UniProtKB/TrEMBL annotation:
Family (UniProt): Belongs to the aldehyde dehydrogenase family.
The name this protein goes by in its record: Aldehyde dehydrogenase
Domain named Aldehyde dehydrogenase: residues: 3-434
GO molecular-function terms, A-Z: aldehyde dehydrogenase (NAD+) activity
Organism of origin: Streptomyces resistomycificus
Gene Ontology BP annotations: aldehyde metabolic process
Sorted UniProt keywords: NAD, Oxidoreductase
Pfam families: Aldedh
InterPro entries: Ald_DH/histidinol_DH (IPR016161), Ald_DH_C (IPR016163), Ald_DH_CS_CYS (IPR016160), Ald_DH_CS_GLU (IPR029510), Ald_DH_N (IPR016162), Aldehyde_DH_dom (IPR015590), Aldehyde_DH_NAD(P) (IPR012394)
Amino acid sequence: MNHSTPEQPADVVARLRATFRTGRTKPVAWRMTQLRRLREMLTDHGADLAAALQADLGKSVTEAYRTEIDFTVREIDHTLEHLADWLRPEPAPVPAHLGADATAWTQYDPLGVVLVIAPWNYPAQLLLAPVVGALAAGNAVVAKPSEMAPATSAALARLLPAHLDTDAVAVVEGGIPETTALLAERFDHIFYTGNGTVGRIVMRAAAEHLTPVTLELGGKSPAFVDRDTDLDVVADRLARGKFLNAGQTCVAPDYVLTDPATAAALEPALARAVEALFGTDPAASGEYGRIVNERHFDRLSGLVDSGRVVVGGVGDRTAKYLAPTVLADVDPDAPVMREEIFGPILPIVSVLGLDEAIAFINDRDKPLALYVFSESDGTRRRIAEETSSGGLGYGLPLAHLTVSDLPFGGVGESGMGNYHGRYSIETFSHRKAVLDKPLG
Ligand code: NAD
């Protein structure tokens, strides 16, 4: 549609709802066509998106493809391959009192019009991966990219309508006023990724219409390093997970928990790992990202003196560059331990052993991810059984969310609900119970 003035949120939702009512989004063929066109958009215009991600976050082309563009393509391919299977009605056993001729099953019904609100840190992936799920489940979608990644937001607002069915998919750009106006409308599901403060605003607005929500939030994700592990391997994997996207990753290891002797050996290993990844001057490395804006740069700079600097600690506000930083001897009450860091600072906090580590984790909000570096089956099992987190990664940060057959989401303060692969179908559908008792 061509509008001289931007379409009002109420009109966007009404228009999409009218499309949904016609039944157009329900056939599996329509869903798959939309997914294929989205895939085409990503392959044909990957370079445009990569340029936007570079402008917004200093992401290298490699990183843009790996963590956003190709990531979403894989999610689409996985969905296209399995969708028919996932949507198959599931028979349920019928109790004897209903008679031998009665049958029962569950079937997935699309919900209607879904709102997806995305954050700025993976501004393409975190908008598009939920959109893949919403479309695969047969819904109409309003997609709201983050205004804090303006180049990516503009690119998506241009590309999505050029590829998808514009009567069923709309992009609404903007910040708080536009999102507030959208949230006043009635949706059939709201999928929000971002911080817990706004998560509460979203949930309150949703309550007015009894709209179900998925909240993909963040928090401090700990990494426990056991003694007697290969610290060069641990340091390499920690550094890769932490400093990807300059630490602005919801599932990045937020801090390290380990005993004092292991901490002492881990410090130089981390310094070596940072140098191996980004050279002696990470500012000159094409592979190292930038902080999203000055406000976050200032916030992060204020956290650097929370401990002894092992590596990094320097930055350049004009370039929004903050070096990959490791802090040792960090007090559990230091400022860096009081909020989600969401930047390239890795504090090491000492605990005396596994019991203390588990207590430390359980004394705090349930994390989005928990990482464990240990060769001990007993340690691995105890952490799995005695802590709660959105996801659990043994030996490798971040990677669990690339497994399409695993649900991705938080618990407690780190969120509610989950998605990816078939779990997106669960999230964006109603599982309808059907009983059939023949009249004859
Ligand atoms: P952000 O500032 O981009 O906000 C997210 C969205 O909320 C944006 O689209 C924004 O327009 C909207 N918004 C902001 N204020 C609003 C308001 N008052 N009312 C309505 N909408 C509003 O991103 P952010 O929140 O800074 O993102 C960082 C947080 O997101 C971190 O806590 C991080 O851990 C979390 N996160 C979680 C995941 C996940 O998958 N679980 C992924 C990425 C980020």
